[in-house]
Design a protein that fits this description.
Two copies of one chain form a homodimer.
Chain A (H helix, E strand, L loop, with lengths): L4 H8 L9 H7 L3 E6 L7 E4 H6 L7 E4 L4 E4 L7 H17 L13 E6 L3 E7 L3 H4 L3 E12 L2 E9 L14 E4 L6 H13 L3 H7 E12 L11 E12 L13 E8 H9 L5 H13 L11 H7 L15 H6 L2
Parallel strand pairs in A: 1-4, 7-11
Antiparallel strand pairs in A: 1-2, 3-4, 5-6, 7-8, 7-9, 8-12, 10-11
Helix pairs in contact in A: 1-9
Protein name (chains A, B): Thiamine pyrophosphokinase-related protein
Organism (chains A, B): Aspergillus taichungensis
Keywords (chains A, B): Kinase, Transferase
Chain lengths: 330, 330
């Protein structure tokens, strides 16, 4: 018996739901402090109590409220994103120096953004540190597929065996994390070249924005570093329909090889646990939108759809390119 | 200024979220009793306290627990769905006789199902009574569209001016509620003929199951009958791609006329509040899946997507046609 689609979804969406058991949820929340920023009326993430204990949080920059279980960055309410980010960077530099957290040994030198309500850019922090604060991270995932007389087939890469995370596992055709200042459409174009050697014009012509998946991941041993750290995630999803003569090829060292797999082959690999966990969710979403999983053939149709579009309890990004949102990112 | 897409979503998804304000949510829940069935360990809906007060609930069939705010149908734990449905029908017949509720004046003579955890069929009740118990209701909504050299256009019907609910408003191409024993695919075929004169072979050949939308509606004055009744809903969603020579035509008396509207015309009608509320949500979902609404042009992209796939806190249906689920429906 392989894994069901709901099993795969539950491997990603692991944080409990209040409505399933209010008493359990309330008790569970005592394991965390809410991460907050002075002047911003929202929880931005949940920090494990064990992390709060180990982090050195100088009293001139941080306030810990043990009763309400909050950890607040005490910058001026009118501070700039740069000022907030600088204090976070100092705190993390100290943790790296003292080798406090295994997860920071995987330092990426990439900055990930944190947003205030309304999608306003609040601060940025080193990518590998985001699970320590339990803040939302963002990425782009896309499925390249061919649909011709030979049926629907999907381009599936295998991750390099030397990759830091999930080495050798199957992946989505094009996928990657979004750094500060990047927009989903740009990120897609960049990653499609870096990971699949697909030129910008091919991507722009053949890709369709088809929504997003969201889920609340809790890191297990497979993810590396400390376990039980929180990683709520948003993945913007794109379909890229290619003609059979366009062949994605590895470009950087992250991908080993691409396979053109039938739907049945992808289903078998999913059930077999061969895909990186969050890539399973993106493929299940693809199957749901393309009539491959239906109410009549997927026993957990409704539960799957709501869990992979989870409403996260933190402010999330807006990448709107109209006047208000782009102003807020300056 | 017209309505934003998020405004339209909020008109459907109106019940509060725990995470937005735990104290408010907890206080708000004191307005309801949970509807339960003896032997089934789940809340099946929320009944307004004012409804509990007015309903005659004979003590040999019902147990009211004022402390825990539950109303429980006291059938034997091993009762059949027929036995449970019979007691509900008796209670409702009494309410109709005494004209206790305005909403029951719109008696439909259609039975709607209620499911136990795992999607098991538990009981059925008259359609117009479901908001009194706040149980989940199910329907099928589909968008018929043409996408050719003239661009993407959508078939939009106007509801008959004599229809009981939302007369004269714009609607989804094909939409309708699902009675007990009906499966989404069958319901689509039936409604497509009844509402749009589309033959079964055309529907089967051109339709794609593309997921569902779910939201937690709270009835306002526009819905008719008592206000503040709860109506959590699941709509199974289908796209039907038609060639330009296939023209939907009204068949029964529910639809007045079909228009073939451009995307911009649909957007304008949405902003103008011309669509029946839950039809807006289905069109927004269509726009999100077809690259019309993107992270860059929709400021509330993430909030919209998670709210229209809300995880309902009640057991929901499984229409799986494998062995286990269809057994449970017998």
């Amino acid at each position: 018996m392989g894994k069901s689609n709901l099993d795969l979804v539950k491997e990603c969406d692991r944080f409990p739901y209040y409505a399933d058991d209010p008493a359990f949820y309330t008790a569970h929340m005592r394991n965390y402090h809410a991460f907050r920023v002075n002047g911003c009326d929202a929880n931005l993430g949940y920090i494990l109590n064990s992390v709060v204990k180990k982090l050195e949080l100088p009293a001139n920059s941080w306030a810990i409220d043990a009763d309400n279980r909050t950890v607040t960055l005490m910058t001026d309410p009118d501070a700039t994103p740069e000022q907030r980010s600088e204090l976070i960077a100092e705190t993390l530099a100290q943790a790296v120096k003292q080798d406090t957290f295994e997860i920071l040994r995987g330092w990426r030198n990439e900055k990930y953004p944190v947003y205030a309500p309304g999608g306003k850019f609040l601060l940025e922090m080193e990518r590998s540190a985001t699970p320590l604060f339990g803040v939302v991270s963002y990425g782009v995932h896309s499925t390249c597929y061919v649909n011709d007389d030979n049926g629907l087939r999907i381009w599936v890469p295998r991750r390099s065996k030397t990759k830091q995370t999930y080495p050798g596992m199957l992946d989505n055709s094009v996928a990657g994390g979004m750094s500060t200042d990047e927009h989903p459409g740009e990120c897609l174009v960049r990653e499609a070249m870096e990971e699949a050697s697909l030129p910008e014009d091919v991507v722009r012509k053949n890709s369709t924005a088809v929504g997003c998946v969201t889920y609340f991941y809790v890191r297990g041993a497979q993810a590396g570093g400390e376990t039980d750290l929180l990683q709520p995630e948003v993945e913007y999803v794109y379909d890229i329909k290619l003609s059979a003569d366009v062949v994605p090829k590895p470009c950087d060292s992250e991908v080993e090889q691409f396979y053109l797999m039938t739907v049945d082959e992808v289903k078998a690999a999913l059930a077999n646990g061969e895909f990186k966990p969050n890539c399973s969710v993106v493929l299940i979403d693809f199957f749901l939108r393309h009539g491959i999983l239906t109410p009549e053939n997927e026993p957990n149709f409704l539960d799957i759809i709501s869990r992979i579009h989870r409403r996260l309890e933190f402010p999330t990004a807006s990448h709107f390119e109209g006047t208000n949102a782009s102003d807020s990112k300056q």
